[in-house]
Design brief:
Number of helices: 2
Helix content: 10-25%
Strand content: 15-25%
Radius of gyration: 28 Å
Structural class: alpha+beta
Amino acid sequence: MRATRQCSRSACAQPAAATLTYVYADSTVVVGQLAANAEPHSYDLCAQHAERFTAPRGWDVVHIHQEFVEQGPSEDDLDALANAVREAGRPRTAEPIQPPAPVASEPRRGHLRVVGGGA
């Protein structure tokens, strides 16, 4: 199941609808559809902040998708949630605890040894 991501802007609690990525080599900012997974070098924005975003001076802005729609849970997400709840509600049977296997009693030998110094 996919958790709802929030807008990266401070004090904004709206759900994310777009992903913003900086392309430093080209001095370009790309604002596009919400990425499937959160990436460490990109920012999730709500629809309002994605529409009103302005780039730093001298940078270009590329809007990949003009109409940002906040995405709710899909049918697959709801099915996965229902299956997880069913699985968690099933009674669990206690599995017998296996004792650890006996360890062979060999004398322990260190990996370091003294090497005589030549003079």
